[in-house]
Amino acid sequence: MTAVTDEILSFDEAMEKYDPVLGFEVHVELNTKTKMFSAAPNIFGDEPNTAISPVDLGLPGVLPVVNKAAVEYSIMIGLALNCKIAESCFFARKNYFYPDTPKNFQTSQYEDPICYDGYLDIELEDGEVFRVEIERAHMEEDAGKLTHMGGATGRIQGAEYSLVDYNRAGVPLVEIVTKPIVGAGSRAPELAKAYVAAIREIVKNLGVSDARMERGNVRCDANVSLMPKGTSTFGTRSETKNVNSLRSVERAVRFEIQRHAAVLDSGAKVTQETRHWHEDTRTTTSGRPKSDADDYRYFPEPDLVPVVTTPEWIEELRSRLPEPPAERRKKLKAAWGYSDAEFRDVLNAGVMDAIEETIAAGASAAVARKWWMGEISRRAKEAEVDPVDVGVTPELVVELDKLVQAGKINDKLARQVLDGVLAGEGTPEEVIAKRGLAVVSDDGPLLEAIDAALAAQPDVAEKIRGGKVQAAGAIVGGVMKATRGQADAGRVRELIFERLGVQG
Amino acid sequence: MTELIRNSAARLAELLAAKEVSSVEVTQAHLDRIAEVDGSVNAFLHVNTEEALAVAADVDKARAAGEDLPVLAGVPIAIKDLIVTVGQPTTAGSKILEGWMSPYDATVIKKIRAAKMPMLGKTNLDEFAMGSSTEHSAYGPTRNPWDLDRIPGGSGGGSAAAVAAFEAPLALGTDTGGSIRQPASVTGSVGVKPTYGGVSRYGAIAMASSLDQIGPVSRTVLDSALLHEVIGGHDPHDSTSLTDPVGALAEAARNGDVRGLRIGVVRELQGEGYDAGVQERFDESLELLRGAGAEIVEVSCPNFRYALGAYYLIMPSEASSNLAKFDGVRYGQRVLPTDGPLTIERVMGATRAAGFGDEVKRRIILGTYALSAGYYDAYYGSAQKVRTLVQRDFDAAFAQADVLISPTAPTTAFKLGEKLDDPLAMYLNDVATIPANLAGVPGISVPGGLADGLPVGIQFLAPAREDARLYRVGHVLESLLEEKWGGPLLAQVPDLSASTAETMSGAN
Amino acid sequence: MSEINREAVAHLARLAHIEMTDAELDRMAGELDVIVDSIKSVQEAAGDDVPATSHPIPLTNVFREDVVGETLTNEQALSGAPDSADGRFKVPAILDEE
Ligand SMILES: [Mg+2]
Ligand SMILES: [Zn+2]
């Protein structure tokens, strides 16, 4: 656990006194087939240190060569963000030592980003639109992955040693940097989440990134500073790293606003520093203050030559852009027949894509919505994660639904089957078999249970005989209890009426 | 087989093609020579006996079977140990890479293999190619075959000395500020820095990416041309590689002719700072060329006086970044701090402190300084502007002359240790070679005779992509001088096998 | 004397991750001072109107098609590693977070 030492002010009080200024650096991993500067495959989750070429390991003598697709994807992102595309730009070296950085410099862009001066209109939950200005979107490469060993929590603090896997080193990144975002007021946390969600949606829609935040395809650094109300000079900012879910983005921004407010209220100064977000405590902790070690000694990458764009090339790329997400949303809503409220809930829950995939996998629009907005969202809330991070795949939803449709299980049992699948007990079929969850469909045992229930409650039986069919619920309940929920409630009802000779 | 090793590569290729000798014989003769003299010369850091003989045997077999073979098939070659090779260690002359085996071949090594040239081994150099005397090698200095108490130049002193001592007919070098041409000059051999981008840099351990270039080292101009044709050409692994075809360089050497050729004497690359003996040989060469029909003109390159300063900002800046990867994490030596906490930062600091020599550290710190916040514009930025001015000087000069000429180095080989404690004096050795690297133009050094018994080099420079001109004019001067000397300059090199024993005893 | 003193060199050595003793720092400061003095004339050479040259032979748009090429095996990747475990490079604890 992380020690919490920072005082915070209540959000409402903070908002009464201060105006927040936000800024975001969002890193998007591109889904090109190969890396930014080498022909090694860009794949996720391979055996460590196998998806690498000599270039990705920074071996002596190696040289980078730019992946054309990565440049084109970057330009496409820029166009989708309403950016200008540089006529000419170059790569630069950002020099710093860190063991996940094979050359001890990152090849990035500094003075001349490929995309600059854009904007994105962000629609908040209630339909209000907020314009976020984009300063730049530049190309760079990802670092390798460190695993910290020997410590208590797998964290860097207290670790005895670390292991480095360079498979991710050299994966193409586009870093999207906003201009300072002023004027969001108390909606700042909400805007933060909506902004990152919008970026994720755009790059996914473009097909240039898998955009899975849980895999780090989209990663957000959030800058927060406060200005006393009525003033317009930016305060000192903190940069919170490692905010890698939509929910965390919102919470981290909210927390930092509250923390800054407390610092300023106490008469102290905010330190310019890197902060780390901890989902477990929902707090940030101090990382590293800005220091003279942050002298990155940028200079033009001498092993690469400038990238020059032509209007024809840019127009060709523009013609490849798919319809924008807003339009896509309109289409999906119509196709699925959801009401305005239903669709907004779907969007807010971040499950539109999941529903689309579930429908594509064979479910009806209604069933897909029922699962994602119902059981899966409930579990997400419980676990405090996003619904898409619960671990339920569209295919699993379809499979469960098929089993329900076939009468093999009912909705209640389906939830238990889901428990089993998520607990790693196997496929739904296997879980049903292992846990003995199948709906009792043989009337024999049911009739026995019905007779027993009727005998136990003769007064109720009498009421039903007299035409009070709604009283059957008590008998159904008794039967369900006796069969530990494994009976098909509908069939039980039918059998009760049959038994008592009344019309249901 | 002493006579065999005195043949040029071109002659060896003829003998091999005519099956008068086998590649195994040629290769073994050179291996024998290495065994005989390298104890005193120290040109080789690694001798690749087994593989060289195996490749030679393959070539002999293929030739016996009547296969069509590349021109230099079976002719052995030595490789500067800055170029990575599978199957042989690559050290860059540094302790930090001691024992390191590359899992991949440099592009030029792939080409050498495709050309079926047996690799004799890896040659000594100043650590990471930083130096002009090969004294900055972590594995001891290489000695000049003309005088074992003197430096063979640097950084490619090992390749130049190997060729001059008849340990190899050919070698590969790298030239960032003169590291092929200056050693050629002081050892009486031939060295060529091709047009930047003419030869792939993939697999050459980078010192300064925008200046480095791999090139041939040999005893004759034609041999360099033949080797240049093997290693040149476009490489998709090097983004700065030119797409131009290599060109008919050997043919240019064979058809050398200077009649009507305008040769520009660079006013700023002679006179003050140049030894009288060097100047004499230089003037002699000019006269010979004039006599052969060349038109000698004088050109001025006023900004060359800033070239050395610009070079000593750009080179260390790029080097400081290029050498950051040597940190004891992925390959090479790792040194643990002797006390205090064991963290990766401290391991990196201790590894680099122990693994790098003084000159490397000096350049890394200088480069770090030139790039650091607040100094970038004044130093790195200004140096890159000087580069523009130097290019403009070249453009203007090449408008008046087809090739330029100068002494390759201001002095002949100096004594080992003489300039070791004076970095600035050491840096001045490259004053005539550096402008070519800044502008990317090609240059050649050919032997120009002796001054006080030590070789003097004559440098020709040509416009970018006009490497052929160097071979044309270089071969003419070589022929004119050899006619005068009655044979190659290296025929006059002292007999090393005789002098080995006594000189070794006096070695420091 | 220019601005390169022992403290400045110590800062540069930290940036460059090279441990240096006080004696080394002093010696290096002296040497660098001489070198920088002798090369700083580059600042006078060019005016604002002179563009910088970072590549001697100007090229643009040198790209690679997005096609998978050769990779190293895990054994090749780790073959030169000073220390490794579980197919990965092993390094001592990292204290300074990036
Ligand atoms: Mg950033
Ligand atoms: Zn970044």
From TrEMBL, chain A:
Name of this chain's protein: Aspartyl/glutamyl-tRNA(Asn/Gln) amidotransferase subunit B
Reaction(s) this enzyme catalyzes, per UniProt: L-aspartyl-tRNA(Asn) + L-glutamine + ATP + H2O = L-asparaginyl-tRNA(Asn) + L-glutamate + ADP + phosphate + 2 H(+); L-glutamyl-tRNA(Gln) + L-glutamine + ATP + H2O = L-glutaminyl-tRNA(Gln) + L-glutamate + ADP + phosphate + H(+)
Boundaries of every Asn/Gln amidotransferase domain copy: 353-500
Subunit structure: Heterotrimer of A, B and C subunits.
Record InterPro entries: Asn/Gln-tRNA_amidoTrfase_suB/E, Asn/Gln-tRNA_Trfase_suB/E_cat, Asn/Gln_amidotransferase, Asn/Gln_tRNA_amidoTrase-B-like, GatB, GatB_Yqey_C_2, Gln-tRNA_amidoTrfase_suB_CS, Gln_synth/guanido_kin_cat_dom
Chain intervals for the UniProt region annotation (Disordered): 270-296
PANTHER family according to UniProt: GLUTAMYL-TRNA GLN AMIDOTRANSFERASE SUBUNIT B MITOCHONDRIAL AND PROKARYOTIC PET112-RELATED (PTHR11659), GLUTAMYL-TRNA(GLN) AMIDOTRANSFERASE SUBUNIT B, MITOCHONDRIAL (PTHR11659:SF0)
Gene3D superfamilies from the UniProt entry: 1.10.10.410
Keywords assigned by UniProt, alphabetized: ATP-binding, Ligase, Nucleotide-binding, Protein biosynthesis
UniProt-listed HAMAP family: GatB
Record family assignment: Belongs to the GatB/GatE family. GatB subfamily.
PROSITE patterns xrefs: GATB
Automatic annotation (TrEMBL), chain B:
Catalytic activity: L-glutamyl-tRNA(Gln) + L-glutamine + ATP + H2O = L-glutaminyl-tRNA(Gln) + L-glutamate + ADP + phosphate + H(+)
Amidase domain span: 25-470
Active site residues according to the UniProt entry: K80 (charge relay system), S155 (charge relay system), S179 (acyl-ester intermediate)
EC number: 6.3.5.7
InterPro entries: Amidase, Amidase_CS, Amidase_dom, AS_sf, GatA
Keywords: ATP-binding, Ligase, Nucleotide-binding, Protein biosynthesis
Gene3D superfamilies per record: Amidase signature (AS) domain (3.90.1300.10)
SUPFAM superfamilies registered for this protein in UniProt: Amidase signature (AS) enzymes (SSF75304)
Enzyme class, UniProt record, top EC level: ligase
Subunit-level organization: Heterotrimer of A, B and C subunits.
Role according to the record: Allows the formation of correctly charged Gln-tRNA(Gln) through the transamidation of misacylated Glu-tRNA(Gln) in organisms which lack glutaminyl-tRNA synthetase. The reaction takes place in the presence of glutamine and ATP through an activated gamma-phospho-Glu-tRNA(Gln).
Family, similarity comment: Belongs to the amidase family. GatA subfamily.
Protein name stated in the entry: Glutamyl-tRNA(Gln) amidotransferase subunit A
Annotated organism of origin: Arthrobacter mangrovi
Gene name for this UniProt entry: gatA_2
TrEMBL record, chain C:
E.C. code: 6.3.5.-
InterPro entries named in the record: Asp/Glu-ADT_sf_sub_c, GatC
Keyword ATP-binding: yes
Gene Ontology process terms (BP): glutaminyl-tRNAGln biosynthesis via transamidation; regulation of translational fidelity; translation
Pfam families: GatC (PF02686)
Assigned keywords, A-Z: ATP-binding, Ligase, Nucleotide-binding, Protein biosynthesis, Transferase
Gene Ontology molecular functions: asparaginyl-tRNA synthase (glutamine-hydrolyzing) activity; ATP binding; glutaminyl-tRNA synthase (glutamine-hydrolyzing) activity; transferase activity
Catalytically driven reaction(s): L-glutamyl-tRNA(Gln) + L-glutamine + ATP + H2O = L-glutaminyl-tRNA(Gln) + L-glutamate + ADP + phosphate + H(+); L-aspartyl-tRNA(Asn) + L-glutamine + ATP + H2O = L-asparaginyl-tRNA(Asn) + L-glutamate + ADP + phosphate + 2 H(+)
Subunit structure: Heterotrimer of A, B and C subunits.
Function field: Allows the formation of correctly charged Asn-tRNA(Asn) or Gln-tRNA(Gln) through the transamidation of misacylated Asp-tRNA(Asn) or Glu-tRNA(Gln) in organisms which lack either or both of asparaginyl-tRNA or glutaminyl-tRNA synthetases. The reaction takes place in the presence of glutamine and ATP through an activated phospho-Asp-tRNA(Asn) or phospho-Glu-tRNA(Gln).
Protein family per UniProt: Belongs to the GatC family.
Name the UniProt record assigns to this protein: Aspartyl/glutamyl-tRNA(Asn/Gln) amidotransferase subunit C
Naturally occurring in which organism (per UniProt): Arthrobacter crystallopoietes BAB-32
Phylogenetic lineage: Bacteria, Bacillati, Actinomycetota, Actinomycetes, Micrococcales
Gene: gatC
